[in-house]
Structures are given as structure tokens and as C-alpha cells.
């Protein structure tokens, strides 16, 4: 880890560890882990030794920086100075190794502790739970001589993370006096497995709610594609006088984007302006994304240009937005502007750019971008980038290039990539490559989807081979697979109505 130049050390050397500890603590509280370590280095240089109060701050800083090298060095120093036997230092060492996902070393530290207080037990418990090792966590939980509310909450949260709602509920029901964290963690357990009905019951039963509670529910609705419920909950939250924060707004704006509701999205934008949240970088990004997906690229551009702080997410959102609207050259211009402003692109940037080239037929430009990803920016192409390139070649009719890329790519092509290429074969009536893709798809799994069966049938139909097309439809019907109905959502007087093809509408 390269540390910056230290420019904040007082000119007059501090005489005692307590003065240094105050500086180190203050820097860590500000989230400045790098300068925390640098201050300690300067402290050593002038001959002032750390004590049992210094090391816990340092171990926390090493964990924040994810620097195992610094962590190991600090651990070694505590052994040399004898502070490794101090309970506060030992607990800090345990937490640091847990943050490095070295639960094995954390457990060794825990085992050699002569005195284990409640903080130490909970730290080890959290190390297991955070790593998803809930069987080990349960063993430790049963061994604990005393348990506090944090012990129970760690267990509920750990089970929630791995989708074991019943186990989480079992712990939850044992808590005599539940705090707000207990309730919020149980709601997460329900939403993680898609049980939003029980999550809603828990919300209604809660004696007290905070903004995290509401955000957790909104996030759960989004994760389970219940977008109208997410927006309704936002209104309910305001009615209960709970002040939404930037996470709330990014959630409901995402719901508006999925529903394509420009009217609601604009209303939430006005709310953000009124409450001073529109300048938040996360909200700005969500607004750009929402307007683009709701069909108003002009509003997306307006939000982007008015934004005072443009981070990587903001740039990615506008590139993806103009890409969605088919403005390939505009996406490339934003990319050039982005690099001129010394903003380094990431893998998401290139997904947006390659998608823009695909939608605009910019084959040469797409190839150049794909080639420069690793060469100029050190970004290894992921399956999504290969998918964009396959789509680019397929849309332009270069099916041979698309097939060669699939053969050459170091990753296994997924059904999405193969499906995109097969769809291109249908459009371009290319039976030779189409049948090759069919073989790849059938070799992957015997359980084909309705969409894959339909594309097989459509491939032969596009080439005039009606008997073979009907044969694939018959195989699909005989397998009991039913074609998924298309659907539309229409907003009327603030209510969202879903219509299925061949069916009746529903709220």
C-alpha cells in the first residue's frame, strides 16, 4: 500500500503516548486510516513508544485499509512489546484478522486469551457470522457464559445473510427485550428469501422504527421486484414523520426507473430538491438513471451537467443512459471527456460503452474499446464485456466473428450470450451457425427454457423449414413447458396496472 506524504505532524515533538493517541484516535474517527498509520510511524521515529491504547486504533486502521502486511507487522510489535496479552489489544487483533477474512487466525487469538469479556466473545461470534460460518457461530453462541442483545443480533444477522430465515426467527423469538437492530435484522432475513409478507408483518409489529428500518423494507421490495410496494412504502414513511435519507431516495428512484414512471420520478426529484438531497452523488446517479430509463434523456443530461460532483458512478450512469437511447457517438464523447477530467473508467464504464457501440452499429469503435480495456486501463474483460461484443457482432451481421469470439474467450459462455447469438442467427436466417449454437445450448443442460425452445423453432421457421420448426414446438409442449406471457404496466391516476398477454389486468 502506497501511503501519502505526511504533512500534519506537529512541529514540536509530542512528549508522551497520550498526546499521540489523541491525534491517532481523531484521525481514525475521521476515517483517515492512512494518516493514522503514518502518525504512528512518525511517533516511532522520534522515539515515543505505543501503549495498549495505541494498538487497538492501529489494528482497526489496518483492517480498514485491508493491509495484511501492516497488520502482521503491528501484531509482531505487540508481541515484542508485551502488549499482545492485553485484552483490548487482543480483541483488536481478533477483529483485524476477521476483517481480513482470516477467521482461522482470529480463532487462534481468541483461544489464547486468558480473560474473555463480553466484547471478545461477541467479536469472535461476529467473525464467524460475517464469514457465513453459522454452524461454528452457533457452537460458540451456546458456549458463551453470558449473552447480551448484541450476541443475539449477531446471530440473527448472520442467519439472515445466508438465507436461513427459520434459524434467524428461532434466535429472534428467544430475545426477551428486542431492540431496533433485532427487528431490522429479522426483516432482512425475510426479504433475503423473498418473504415480503412476513417482512411487512414484522414492520407493522415493530414498536419503534428508524430510517434503516424503512430503507431495509424498500430494499427488500426492490430485490423482489415489488416496485409499486416500494413507492407506496416511501409515502407511508413520510406520513409517519420519518425523514428519508439519500439511500431512501436512491431506492424509490430505482423503483420508478423499473416502472418507467416519469411522473413519479419527477415528483421524487422535486422532493429531493426541497430537502437538499439532490446534490448527493448517489441521488444524482439515481436521477440520471431514472430519467434515462423513463424516456427523458434530456432530463438525464440536465441533471448530469448541473451536478457539482461527478464521480465514476455519475459518469457511468450518463454513458449507460445515452447508450440506452441509441446515442453511440455521444457515449464515446462522454468517455473522452471523462478521461480528460482524469476520471479513470472501471468495468461498468466499458459495459456501457460497448453496449452503446452495439446499439449504434459502431463495430470498429467497439473493437478498439474492447482491446484497450486491459492494455490501457488494466481491466480484464468479464463475461458481460464478451456478451456485449457478441451482441455487437451479431447485430451487425458478423456472425462468424461472434462465433470465433465465443470459441476464443477464456470464460464459459452463458445462456444469455448464446441466446443473443442464436437470436441473431434467426434474424439473419443463418442455419449453419444457428445449429452450432443449438448444440452448445443443449450440451449445457437438458432443461431448456421456453425462450430457447421458441428460438429453436423460430430458427427453422426463418429458413422455411416448417416441419422442423413444428417438431421443436411439439417437444416443448410435450415437456409441459408453457411460453411465458408478455406483460405491460400502465400507470393510470397514480395506480399501476399490469396486463398479461391474453389475460386480464391486475393492480
Provide structural commentary.
A three-stranded antiparallel β-sheet has the order 1-2-3, with no helix packed on it. With 507 residues, it is an all-alpha fold. It is globular. Belongs to the PPR family. PCMP-E subfamily. One of its GO terms (molecular function) is RNA binding.
Molecular shape: globular
> How do the strands line up in the largest sheet?
1-2-3
Class computed from helices, strands and strand pairing: mainly alpha
Strand content: under 5%
What Rg is obtained from the alpha carbons, in whole angstroms? 28 Å
Largest sheet: 3 strands, antiparallel
Unreliable segments of 5+ consecutive residues: 1-9
Amino-to-carboxy terminus distance: 54 Å
* Total beta strand runs: 3
Counted by DSSP, the helix tally is 28
Give the helix proportion (percent range).
55-70%
What is the average of the pLDDT values?
89
Short note summarizing the structure:
The protein is mainly α and 507 residues long.
Features:
507 residues; mainly alpha; 3-stranded antiparallel beta sheet; 3 strands; disordered N terminus; RNA binding
Could you give the topology of this structure?
Blueprint: H1 17-29, H2 33-45, H3 54-64, H4 68-81, H5 87-99, H6 103-111, H7 118-130, H8 134-143, H9 149-161, H10 165-174, H11 180-192, H12 196-205, H13 211-223, H14 227-239, H15 246-259, H16 262-274, H17 281-293, H18 297-306, H19 312-324, H20 328-340, H21 347-360, H22 363-377, H23 383-395, H24 399-408, H25 415-427, H26 431-444, H27 450-462, H28 466-478, E1 487-492, E2 495-500, E3 505-506
Helix pairs in contact: 1-2, 1-3, 2-3, 3-4, 3-5, 4-5, 5-6, 5-7, 6-7, 7-8, 7-9, 8-9, 9-10, 9-11, 10-11, 11-12, 11-13, 12-13, 13-14, 13-15, 14-15, 15-16, 15-17, 16-17, 17-18, 17-19, 18-19, 19-20, 19-21, 20-21, 21-22, 21-23, 22-23, 23-24, 23-25, 25-26, 25-27, 26-27, 27-28
Keywords: Repeat
GO molecular function, one term: RNA binding
Protein name: Pentatricopeptide repeat-containing protein
Amino acid at each position: 500500500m502506497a501511503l501519502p506524504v505526511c504533512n500534519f505532524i506537529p512541529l514540536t515533538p509530542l512528549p508522551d503516548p497520550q498526546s499521540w493517541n489523541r491525534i491517532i484516535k481523531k484521525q481514525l474517527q475521521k476515517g483517515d486510516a492512512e494518516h493514522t498509520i503514518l502518525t504512528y510511524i512518525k511517533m516511532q521515529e522520534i522515539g515515543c513508544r505505543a501503549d495498549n491504547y495505541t494498538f487497538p486504533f492501529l489494528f482497526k486502521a489496518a483492517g480498514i485499509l485491508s493491509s495484511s502486511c501492516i497488520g502482521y507487522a503491528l501484531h509482531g510489535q505487540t508481541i515484542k512489546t508485551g502488549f499482545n496479552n492485553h485484552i483490548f489489544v487482543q480483541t483488536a487483533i481478533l477483529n483485524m484478522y476477521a476483517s481480513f477474512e482470516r477467521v482461522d487466525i482470529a480463532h487462534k487469538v481468541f483461544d489464547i486469551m486468558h480473560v474473555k469479556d463480553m466484547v471478545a466473545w461477541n467479536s469472535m461470534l461476529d467473525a464467524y457470522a460475517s464469514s457465513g460460518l453459522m454452524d461454528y457461530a452457533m457452537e460458540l453462541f451456546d458456549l458463551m457464559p453470558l449473552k447480551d442483545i448484541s450476541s443475539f443480533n449477531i446471530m440473527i444477522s448472520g442467519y439472515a445473510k445466508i438465507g436461513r430465515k427459520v434459524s434467524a426467527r428461532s434466535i429472534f423469538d428467544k430475545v426477551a427485550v428486542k431492540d431496533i437492530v433485532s427487528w431490522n435484522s429479522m426483516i432482512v432475513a425475510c426479504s433475503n428469501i423473498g418473504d415480503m409478507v412476513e417482512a411487512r408483518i414484522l414492520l407493522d409489529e415493530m414498536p419503534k422504527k428508524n430510517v434503516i428500518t424503512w430503507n431495509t423494507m424498500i430494499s427488500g421490495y426492490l430485490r423482489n421486484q415489488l416496485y409499486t410496494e416500494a413507492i407506496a412504502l416511501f409515502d407511508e414513511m413520510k406520513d409517519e414523520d420519518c425523514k428519508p435519507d439519500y439511500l431512501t431516495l436512491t431506492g424509490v428512484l430505482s423503483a420508478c426507473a423499473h416502472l418507467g414512471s416519469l411522473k413519479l420520478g419527477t415528483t421524487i426529484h422535486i422532493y429531493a430538491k426541497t430537502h437538499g438531497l439532490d446534490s448527493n452523488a448517489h441521488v444524482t446517479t439515481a436521477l440520471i438513471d431514472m430519467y434515462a430509463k423513463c424516456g427523458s434523456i434530456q432530463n438525464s443530461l440536465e441533471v448530469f451537467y448541473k451536478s457539482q460532483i461527478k464521480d465514476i458512478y455519475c459518469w457511468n450512469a450518463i454513458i449507460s443512459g445515452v447508450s440506452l437511447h441509441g446515442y453511440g457517438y455521444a457515449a464515446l464523447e462522454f468517455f473522452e471527456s471523462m478521461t480528460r477530467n482524469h476520471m479513470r473508467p472501471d468495468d461498468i464504464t466499458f459495459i456501457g460503452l460497448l453496449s452503446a457501440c452495439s446499439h449504434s452499429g459502431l463495430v470498429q469503435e467497439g473493437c478498439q474499446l474492447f482491446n484497450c480495456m486491459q492494455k490501457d486501463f488494466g481491466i480484464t474483460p468479464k463475461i458481460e464485456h464478451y456478451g456485449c461484443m457478441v451482441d455487437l457482432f451479431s447485430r451487425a451481421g458478423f456472425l462468424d466473428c461472434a462465433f470465433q469470439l465465443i470459441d476464443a474467450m477464456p470464460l464459459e459462455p452463458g445462456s444469455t450470450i448464446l441466446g443473443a447469438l442464436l437470436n441473431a442467427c434467426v434474424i439473419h436466417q443463418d442455419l449453419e451457425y444457428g445449429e452450432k449454437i443449438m448444440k452448445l445450448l443443449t450440451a449445457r443442460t437438458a432443461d431448456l427454457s421456453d425462450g430457447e425452445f421458441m428460438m429453436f423453432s423460430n430458427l427453422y421457421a426463418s429458413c422455411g423449414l416448417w416441419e422442423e420448426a413444428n417438431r421443436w414446438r411439439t417437444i416443448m409442449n410435450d415437456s409441459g413447458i408453457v411460453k411465458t406471457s408478455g406483460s405491460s404496466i400502465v400507470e393510470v391516476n397514480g395506480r399501476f396496472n399490469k396486463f398479461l398477454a391474453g389475460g386480464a389486468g391486475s393492480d
